[in-house]
Design goal:
The complex is a heterodimer of chains A (442) and B (482). Chain A has 442 residues and is α/β, with parallel strands linked by helices. Chain A has helices at residues 11-21, 30-45, 61-65, 81-87, 121-126, 130-135, 146-153, 387-395, 400-416, 422-440; strands at 69-70, 93-98, 101-102, 117-120, 159-163, 173-179, 185-187, 190-195, 200-209, 216-225, 230-238, 244-253, 258-265, 270-279, 285-294, 299-308, 314-323, 328-337, 345-354, 360-369, 375-383. Chain A has 2 domains: 11-281, no CATH class; 386-442, no CATH class. In chain A, 24% of the residues lie in helices and 36% in strands. The radius of gyration of chain A is 22 Å and the shape is globular. Chain B is of the alpha/beta class. Chain B has one domain (2-477). Chain B contains 12 helices and 24 strands. In chain B, the strands form 3 sheets. In chain B, strands 4-3-7-9-12-14-17-20-22-24 form a 10-stranded mixed β-sheet, with helices on one face. In chain B, strands 13-15-18-21-19-16 form a 6-stranded parallel beta barrel. Chain B starts with a helix and ends in a 5-residue tail after the last helix. Classes of the chains: A alpha/beta (442), B alpha/beta (482). The interface between A and B is medium-sized, with 35 and 35 residues.
């Protein structure tokens, strides 16, 4: 069939062509071959629709309809180091990205154990770092998720963290992603985190916007956990209510490794978080926690997958949502237990507090079990504040509004308290508190 | 360990107890499905014009539909043109009493242990026995008639109560609802019809026995139960089927309508169709649409099912809670062994205010069986102060089987409360040890534990069925613990 001549080339194709033109001879590199493959795959798949089971409750047609402008250059956007210091809870190690590009002047890195790399992906790729090249796209497949393919197609920058065998990074590494400007930007950071055997690190990703515009953040983070590695990954998403935020976190865990993820979503208009962890070694442990606090027209969608590929692995999952206004919450938690993954112990809990009659929650906990000697449970509740608890507080002279606030905050703090980084936890508490208060003042 | 393997082998090698074929001349339609087939069925049953039109409309819609692929089951493609859509045992004349029934038929029932005579005298259960697709005998009709209850075969209802059939047929499961419901609407052969008038409590448990007999005959049953204001009925459905090598398709539709306020319908099923042999060859494809509508205030619909048979089970008995304060219940035990597959669950659609629903689902997987629970609890915006509690537990016996849960929960207001919990586990070694220490064999211990696991559901079954269900469970699972 002939295409109508008036039909425009989609923004991602025209910009990809532009992007290729400005590569200065890099277009024949193997990195660019990966980009082209991803672009082809994305063009083939297109944006998902609600007909896809994975996107049943989240309609991304506003993203598909809009035109975005990828940012190809780094820009400090008039930010001072004091500004960013405040935003990143005074962390010792801080990498700052503005519109997806690393800004060296704003970043600061404290003393690190020998061999540890905390830097930007662009330099690592440019420097032909074998590790960076080899790890890119190793765990995040471009085949299944269209947004992962779209991320790979424009892959340029992001964080690159390497902790070699036996090294311990004591202080948390803060990754600060700031979006600015007035156009509909397309921001696609790519983070690679490689943690060797017996090594330990804590990473905190924060996503903030400085302007109210409908940017699209489409981030992919890949984490490799070696044997006995201990990793905590905290994520704060607090972008503007107009922003679109799509994030995929892919974790690959080896024997006896321990991975903890705390994902807190407060901002954004349309938010989708994918967290996938593969327990690919015996006695590996995985903990996924999440909190969504939404009001207005926000949609916050959390999709998690825990793949028990090997025996004797425990996994714990707690996802909570507080929904006010006309907001929508989605939770889809998959737990796979492969045929030989005996002695699996998987526990999943999803709790939602609905504060308004216009709010909607769609939850789908899902167990797929192919082994017999396992203990798997999931629980999901959707409801309101407990009447008995309200009564208890009121009987002690606390007003209805305050009592409801206390209980709602307690409900949400349960997840916030699981963040081990002190500074970040304080910041999160304040943000959650402010957001819940704002909801009430409507 | 070796003794357990032995019992397992014995069990696996046992013949299907109810597998036999009765030789009765059948009046069959030509193989395949066209508008003419439908006209043939309709003419055979002397149906009014509107019903034929309804069937044809369903057929035309069916042609535009695709077979669903989303269930978590695998099977060979069904050739819909290779099925005989109508088959009826020949009836020489209208029968007045059981003595006139073909003795061979009566013998079949005796083999199944549902002798009509015995039922009539002892059990106090009215049986509308469906042999293949046509009802041959109905008992206790008189007693029901006195109470004002209409309980007859579907074709009889079409002849004698066309206004009721016309009013309620397709009111809960529309003809174009889904692929298999549309197929059923086009070609349904017979089934049961039940109408409980206002204020009547049905004096006995109603039951039908379905049985698939003629080779390659798909069964397309249609059941319609209507309860008026304040009426109550408990309906039992039980099935066995003879041994077959080719897969047989069964696409039934069951519609329950609790029309008036405080109407109550309780529907219980024990399903033990031929599950295929131990290599997974043969067996029944059970693709059923069951749905109830609580239209009246304070009305209640309760589904209880024990599913041990069929090669593939695909059914979701659902309740639409439309009336305020209406109640929906779903209690299920689904057992899969050898190569059986089951994708079953329920849908609870809360529309009225203060509605409540309970879901208790117990899945047991053994051998190479795959068991999925798929359920939806939807609370609409206007369905305030509604309540749901769901529990789905899976028990795994063996390391080659699988258990899956796909619950969907959608809540759209702040005064409703939904709780869902699920667990998957195997029988604990300490539980077995405890029983053995008290002198029970492993076999008995497992039987006891499995029965305990299913107790919440069995409790909901009427007495006669509860006993049968426990036996069936024993037969399906004994020894399959390793």
């Amino acid at each position: 069939m002939m295409k109508q001549s008036t039909e425009q080339t989609p923004w991602y194709q025209s910009n990809f062509a532009l992007f290729e033109k400005n590569l200065n001879g890099e277009s024949s590199s193997r990195l660019h071959a990966m980009r082209m493959e991803a672009m082809a795959r994305f063009t083939e798949m297109g944006f998902p629709t609600t007909k896809h089971e994975e996107w049943r409750f989240t309609n991304v047609s506003p993203i598909a309809r809009a035109t975005f402008q990828p940012s190809f250059q780094s820009d400090a956007a008039g930010l001072s180091s004091e500004d960013v210091e405040r935003m990143s809870f005074g962390a010792t190690h801080r990498l700052v990205f503005v519109n997806g590009h690393f800004v060296k002047e704003l970043s600061s890195i404290g003393p690190l154990p020998g061999g540890v790399i905390v830097g930007d992906l662009a330099s690592a790729l440019k420097g032909n770092d074998e590790l960076a090249h080899g790890s890119l796209g190793k765990h995040a497949s471009i085949q299944e998720n269209a947004f992962t393919a779209l991320n790979m197609a424009f892959v340029q920058d992001g964080a690159f963290i390497y902790v070699p065998q036996g090294k311990v990074v004591e202080e948390a590494v803060s990754l600060l992603f700031i979006s600015t400007g007035s156009t509909h930007r397309y921001i696609a950071p790519r983070n690679l985190i490689i943690v060797g055997d017996h090594a330990r690190v804590t990473i905190a990703e924060s996503y903030l916007s400085l302007a109210n515009h409908g940017s699209l953040t489409n981030v992919v983070t890949e984490i490799t956990a070696g044997e006995n590695a201990v990793i905590e990954h905290d994520k704060l998403q607090n972008e503007s209510p107009q922003a679109y935020h799509i994030a995929s976190l892919h974790v690959h865990q080896k024997e006896k490794s321990n991975f903890i993820s705390n994902s807190i979503a407060i901002g954004g208009g349309l938010v989708r978080n994918n967290v996938t962890s593969i327990l690919d070694g015996e006695y590996a442990e995985c903990t996924l926690n999440g909190l969504s606090v939404a009001n207005g027209m926000q949609l916050i969608d959390n999709h998690t997958t825990i793949d028990h590929a090997k025996p004797n692995c425990p996994s714990h999952e707690l996802y909570k949502s507080v929904l006010d206004g006309s907001s929508r919450g989605v939770f889809n938690g998959k737990i796979f237990v492969r045929k030989d993954a005996q002695k699996t112990d998987a526990k999943q809990t999803n709790m939602t507090l609905l504060l308004s009659d216009e709010a909607t929650m769609d939850t789908k906990p899902q167990l797929e079990i192919f082994a017999d000697d396992v203990k798997c449970t999931h629980g999901a509740t959707v409801g309101q504040l407990d009447a008995d608890q309200m009564f208890y507080l009121r009987s002690r002279g606390i007003g209805t509004t305050l009592a409801a606030d206390i209980l709602t905050f307690a409900f949400a703090s349960d997840v916030v308290n699981r963040v081990h980084v002190d500074g970040l936890r304080g910041q999160l508490e304040a943000l959650v508190h402010a957001k819940l208060g704002k909801g009430r003042e409507r | 360990m070796s003794t357990e393997t032995n019992t397992l082998e014995q069990l696996a090698n046992r013949e299907y107890k109810w597998g036999f074929v009765t030789d009765i001349e059948a009046d069959t339609a030509p193989r395949g499905l066209t508008e003419d087939t439908i006209r043939f069925i309709s003419a055979k049953k002397k149906e009014p014009e509107w019903l034929l039109e309804w069937r044809l409309k369903a057929y035309r819609h069916w042609l535009t539909m695709a077979e669903p692929r989303w269930p978590n089951v695998r099977y060979q493609k069904i050739d819909y043109q290779d099925i005989i859509y109508y088959s009826a045992p020949k009836q020489k004349k209208v029968l007045n009493s059981l003595d006139e029934v073909d003795p061979e038929l009566l013998k079949t029932y005796e083999k199944l242990g549902i002798s009509l005579n015995e039922q009539k005298m002892l059990a106090g259960v009215a049986v509308d026995a469906v042999f293949d697709s046509v009802s041959v005998a109905t008992t206790f009709k008189k007693k029901l008639h006195e109470a004002g209850v209409i309980f007859c075969s579907f074709s009889e209802a079409v002849q004698e109560h066309p206004e009721l059939v016309k009013k309620y047929l397709g009111s809960v499961v529309p003809a174009n609802d889904n692929f298999f419901a549309a197929l059923n609407s086009a070609v349904f052969s017979d089934g049961s019809f039940c109408y409980i008038p206002k204020g009547v409590r049905c004096p006995m448990e109603l039951s039908t026995y379905f049985r698939i007999n003629s080779a390659d005959t798909g069964q397309f049953e249609r059941t319609l139960i209507v309860a008026e204001e304040g009426a109550y009925v408990s309906y039992l459905e039980g099935c066995t089927a003879p041994m077959r090598d080719t897969n047989q398709l069964h696409a039934a539709v069951v519609e329950l309508v609790a029309v008036g306020d405080r109407a109550q319908i309780k529907y219980s099923t024990v399903q033990n169709w031929y599950p295929g042999d131990k290599e997974g060859k043969g067996g029944i494809y059970n693709f059923v649409t069951k749905r109830g509508k609580c239209a009246g205030k304070n009305s209640k619909i309760s589904w209880t099912q024990v599913e041990t048979g069929s090669a593939i089970t695909w059914k979701y008995p659902s309740v639409i809670l439309q009336g305020d304060h209406s109640v929906g219940e779903f209690y299920s035990v689904a057992v899969v062994n050898n190569y059986q597959q089951a994708d079953t669950g329920t849908k609870m659609i809360h529309i009225g205010k203060n509605t409540s629903s309970t879901i208790v689902s117990k899945g047991i997987s053994a051998g190479f069986g795959q068991n999925s629970y798929r359920g939806l609890v939807e609370i609409k915006r206007g369905s305030t102060r509604s309540r749901n509690f769901s529990q789905c537990d899976s028990l795994l016996l063996g390391d080659k089987c699988g258990a899956h849960t796909f619950p969907y929960i959608e809540v759209k207001n702040k005064t409703s409360r939904v709780e869902h919990e699920a667990s998957t586990s195997k029988i604990g070694e300490d539980q077995i040890f405890y029983c053995k220490q008290r002198g029970l064999t492993t076999e008995d211990a497992v039987g006891m534990i499995v029965n305990g696991f299913c107790k919440e559901v069995f409790r909901e079954l009427p007495m006669e069925f509860a006993v049968e269900a426990q036996k069936l469970l024993g037969i399906s699972l004994e020894g399959s613990v390793g």
